[in-house]
Specification:
Blueprint: E1 4-12, H1 36-51, E2 55-62, E3 65-73
Antiparallel strand pairs: 1-3, 2-3
């Protein structure tokens, strides 16, 4: 049977100029509004953790930042 360990990481909004999928107060959302710098930062987070053996389970986006949920197989 496979065994996994889990980790949750926090990435505060200050790391991003705008949060992905966070819409304006008027409800306007557009991918054109997401700066390349922000998508590059998310890619850096994913690649760093992936190189350490972590698999992304889910990301939760909010006004204050991003929570990332990770898992990886435990060595026996």
């Amino acid at each position: 049977m496979s065994r996994f360990e889990y980790e949750i990481t926090k990435h505060p909004a200050e790391e991003f100029s705008e949060l992905i999928y966070f819409c304006s107060e008027t409800g306007e959302c557009s991918l054109e509004q997401v700066p390349d710098q922000q998508t590059n930062r998310v890619r850096e987070i994913l690649n760093k953790r992936g190189s350490e053996g972590w698999e992304l389970v889910q990301m939760s986006f909010g006004r204050d930042g991003i929570l990332a949920f990770w898992k990886r197989m435990m060595s026996r």
